């Protein structure tokens, strides 16, 4: 699956000359269990790459993205840092094959100023911006993209470092500049910190704006050359043989059927008339998915063929079989699921990613974003 990127300019104290970027995108402490914000966000957004650049060090060993002049203006280093960080983000996008519309920025405290410079001066809108306990540069040179940029602005009622008066002025400034998708929240008991409530807010925001966009090039179909097993010759599992296997030749969109070649002959069949011969691993040996049936408990089970000296038929629960990515299957058993999933019943889908919780991220015909489904809802 394509990855998204989130850039998080971290909040530090005082600084000096150069940007030092942290490019290691692993999460978790060296010892003990992880408790960081990045770790928790990563668990909620498994397809997202997190970049956490570090502010430049100062003469006293502390770090800062900028200093504030006596007049209240930001010193010029922040704009140089913005250019360096933007170049870094763009180079990273080129390596991952991402567009800026798949990148979101988050900044806490001082880092929010730089995050705003990065996100709101782009020629085209990024995926979104999260401002946590921070202000806003007054000399923003925004473009028309601001109107289409999603912004989450969180302020703390007990924050004595960046007060609610400051954040309210920053909010009004964004509205004056043309922000149309701004969500401003004041949390009464929040200090100058990133609380568990803020983590949840950020995770919900990113799960909305960092949706995977599918390039719709037509209907999802089983690729030409795929080996299939005819269902008519496989009603009895033990009757299966090489003579029952065929090959997909083409797909007829008008009829929603496939031309299947069996030996020297071709047949026009509905997808329900055959099963893809999908390769899987079974106890260290090769096997093939040959179909599915209803188990005694009413759930779906897979029919697997393991061919060594003789054909061996096994029935396994779907979660015990890891299908090859790119496989095209049909969705079923969704009528008892959440309302948003019921409408997907019977549609074709292509497997894109195996998620840590055992579900699949699938590209569903007619949908613009990947859908997370349990293996029991994938029908061969």
Automatic annotation (TrEMBL):
Keyword field: Hydrolase
Location of the Phospholipase/carboxylesterase/thioesterase domain: 77-207
Record-linked Gene3D superfamilies: alpha/beta hydrolase (3.40.50.1820)
Top-level taxon of the source organism: Eukaryota
One family name in Pfam for this protein: Abhydrolase_2
Family affiliation: Belongs to the AB hydrolase superfamily. AB hydrolase 2 family.
Protein name per its UniProtKB record: Probable carboxylesterase SOBER1-like
Highest classification ranks of the organism: Eukaryota, Sar, Alveolata, Dinophyceae, Suessiales
